[in-house]
From TrEMBL:
InterPro entries: ChrB_C (IPR018634), Homeodomain-like_sf (IPR009057), HTH_AraC (IPR018060), HTH_AraC-typ_CS (IPR018062), Tscrpt_reg_AraC-type_HTH (IPR020449). This is Helix-turn-helix domain-containing protein. It comes from Pedobacter cryotolerans. Keywords: DNA-binding, Transcription, Transcription regulation. GO terms for molecular function: DNA-binding transcription factor activity; sequence-specific DNA binding. It comes from the Bacteria. Residues 173-274 form the HTH araC/xylS-type domain. Pfam families: ChrB_C (PF09828), HTH_18 (PF12833). The keyword Cell membrane does not apply. PANTHER family: ARAC-FAMILY TRANSCRIPTIONAL REGULATOR (PTHR43280), HTH-TYPE TRANSCRIPTIONAL ACTIVATOR RHAS (PTHR43280:SF28).
């Protein structure tokens, strides 16, 4: 089977061929052509186009083409799900999706600059995604500091930090105010927007954020804020779930329900019933 997409790939257009060749079609032929030739060549070569506006295999909602491949081919694999979040964050410049997204983006920006042959770049990229998948499947809980000497050095480092702990940098206060302002809107702030507003490198902000915000990544912290706001609406208003989803920045009710259940263990409607029953029982 032939698959065709735009030339000069970086992240998604390397990740999707990797996924195709490793999980969907091991004998697949990947073709890269200039943007304006993709659809014409697809017909001519009987190839399936991907990562292009208006074709089936492309971005949808806040997901990228890699996500669509997983959905379309029903690939259920925790390792692939972990990789998908990293690829989505790197490919859409929303680094809050996964802390590794900034690193993946940096790697492929550098490789794309150094390697001008698309198939040579794909060959290197296949090895990178093989390694990333092995980590995501088997080693994601493993840390570099597991060796005894490294642990000892880390203990010394943490002791030093504890003794000479510095105050939180000024940008943390500004960011808290920025996020709090969003509480009155629909919580649409992204890490990229925050870094632009604060004039801070997004990779630095992504790395440092958890130190000052409840040990959570930017994305997890914003999701927590959204769910906290949703809980307030569920407990104090009779707004329908679709409206609460909109007011708390979720793309639709199903997305809201999925994230709410993941965070609280209950779906929103059940949570509301339990909350109301609890209030009646205390009267």
């Amino acid at each position: 089977m032939k698959w065709i997409t735009r030339e000069r790939p970086k992240i998604d257009r390397i990740a999707c061929p990797w996924l195709i060749k490793r999980f969907i079609d091991t004998d697949a032929e990947i073709i890269y052509v200039p943007f304006e030739q993709v659809l014409l060549k697809a017909k001519e070569l009987d190839a399936i186009p991907f990562d292009l506006p208006g074709v089936e295999y492309s971005h949808y909602d806040d997901q990228c083409t890699f996500d669509y491949f997983l959905k379309k081919h029903k690939l259920k694999d925790e390792g692939l799900d972990r990789i998908a979040a990293i690829i989505r964050g790197a490919d859409t410049d929303r680094l809050e999706f996964a802390p590794q997204a900034a690193g993946l983006s940096a790697i492929f920006l550098g490789l794309s600059h150094n390697i001008h042959n698309d198939h040579e770049l794909l060959e290197v990229g296949m090895k990178i995604y093989d390694g990333l998948y092995t980590w995501a499947k088997h080693l994601f809980n493993q840390k570099h500091t597991q060796a005894p000497v490294e642990k000892l050095l880390l203990d010394v480092y943490h002791k030093y930090l504890k003794e000479g702990k510095k105050k939180a940098p000024a940008w943390t206060r500004e960011l808290r105010e920025m996020i709090q302002d969003q509480m009155d809107t629909n919580m649409s702030i992204s890490l990229r927007q925050a870094s632009d507003e604060l004039e801070i490198n997004p990779a630095y902000l992504s790395r440092e954020f958890s130190k000052y915000f409840d040990n959570l990544s930017f994305g997890d912290y914003i999701r927590k804020m959204r769910i906290d706001k949703a809980i307030s609406f569920l407990e104090t208003t009779s707004y329908p779930l679709t409206e609460i989803a909109y007011l708390t920045g979720f793309s639709d009710q199903s997305h809201f329900t999925r994230i709410f259940k993941k965070q609280t263990g209950e779906n929103p409607s059940a949570y509301r019933k339990i909350s109301r029953k609890g209030k009646k029982d205390t009267k």
